[in-house]
Structure formats: C-alpha cells, structure tokens
C-alpha cells in the first residue's frame, strides 16, 4: 500500500526498477542487493536489469561485501538432503512438476552463486572480462528460473509449492575465501555434473510426450555448457597468473572443499564442448 492505494502490476515493476537504479551505483553493490532480495521473481528481474546496466558500461565494479547467505522466501520449506522425498516418475504430471520445481530451486541458487562470485572476489586482480562472463552467467540463470516458473504455471504450480534441498549453498560457504576453489567446485563440479545428468532428463520428458518441458530443460542444458566453459577459462587463467598447474590445483581444491565424490558416467562430449580437459577430473572418479 502507498498513500492508501494498492500497487499493481506495471506500477510495482516501475517502482522496483526505480529502487534498483538507486542501489546499482556499482556492479558489486547491485550484486549484494540482489543477494539480499528474498522474492525470487524480483531477484531474477533485478539480475537481468543489473546485467543490462553493466553491459551498457554504465557502472564500475566497485567493492561490496556479500552476505554470508542469500535472502530466501518463506517458501519453499528447506530440508536436509536425507529428508527430501524421492523423485517421482516423469510419466505423471506430479512427477514432472517435482522435476521442474527441483530445477527451479537449483537455478535460483545459481543466480545467487554467480552474484556472490562477482561481489566476493571483486578485490582480486581480475580483468573486466571476468565480470563480463559471470554477469552473463547470472543473467542466464535468471532466465532459466523464469522459464521454469512459466512452465510450472502451465501445470497450475509455482515455485515454493514443494520442499527443496537445503544444502545447495554449502559449496559457496566452503569456498568463500578461495577463488580457485569456488571456480573448481561450482562451475567445474556442480554445473559439470548437470551436463552429465540432464540429457537423460530431456530424453525421459520426450518419451512421455512433454515436449514443452523438454525444450525448457534443453535450453538450460545448452547454456550450462557455456557456464562450464567460463569456469574452465577463468580457472586456467587464474592458475596461470599464480604459476600453478591447473589440473593439480583443480584436484587439490575439489578434494579439500567438495564433500561428495565425482561420479561417472561423465558426459565427455558436453564437457569437451566446454573445453574441460578430461585429465582434470577422470582420475578422481569414485
């Protein structure tokens, strides 16, 4: 309510945009504000807007301290991994809703992971191209979340209707003080794992005739190849700047900072398309 009236639709968007333009005086300031935004739709909208401002050359990187954890809405209920219900078959509408909801939750976390990377490591000696790439990643993650939200709406569902995994931010916390560890664990383990498992999800959706959901998931998959490529590029670049062997540095960071194991089968074709050398990870498989 403002001055006794209800703000609706375009008015609310206009006021959010005006407010956002005020705090986005630097890239990192905008990133921190997005991390502090609990509403998922507003977070995605602000991500696209900040990316446009940055790519227009209207702001500098700046320095701002990100929160320890991003703001989250009251729903979905977050549960430990062991308490999450088992994935249902894709043949039923409820099973596909569960899949789309889980993917939307991953993409929402991916938005925050990209902005946290931008803000948290802004004091490193990094070129503008580094920020160009990760702002682009954040913008694409926001688009993915919005596409998944729209597809959920086709089923009469929305993000927050189902419980979600509570452990997705653990990798950010484990790598908060080490840029190489962050690059190793997030794009080169977590997102690369998505390249391994997503083709089968797409195939299952197509087999049950849900071509619209399959198209959304395929869009996410294709873009994630580029995200892994950005991870490889900047991991190798930073290793070169520090005089480190990239393959050895990758394996050391993953062993130290990632709780799980690298599980085959690997999608070597997609990983190769991202420029991810097989010898980095193949020797670490469980």
Description:
This protein is an all-alpha fold. 64% of the residues lie in helices and 1% in strands. A two-stranded parallel sheet has the order 1-2. Helix 5 packs antiparallel against helix 8.
Give a brief description:
This protein is an all-alpha fold and about 290 residues long. The protein has helices spanning about 10-25, 25-35, 40-55, 95-120, 130-155, 170-175, 180-205, 210-240, 245-255, 270-275, 280, and strands at about 80, 165.
Core attributes:
286 residues; mainly alpha; Ferritin; two-stranded parallel sheet; 11 helices; 64% helix; disordered N terminus
What would you call the shape? globular
Provide the CATH topology. Ferritin
Total number of strands: 2
**Low-confidence residue ranges:** 1-15
Overall SS class: mainly alpha
Rg, rounded, reads 19 Å
Return the string of H and E elements: HHHEHHEHHHHHH
Q: Let me know the largest β-sheet.
A: 2 strands, parallel
Task: Provide the β-strand percentage band.
Answer: under 5%
First-residue to last-residue Cα separation: 56 Å
Average residue pLDDT: 91
Strand order of the largest sheet: 1-2
- Count of helical regions: 11
Under the CATH scheme, the architecture is Up-down Bundle
**How many domains would you count in the coordinates?**
1
Provide the helix percentage.
55-70%
The top level CATH class name: Mainly Alpha
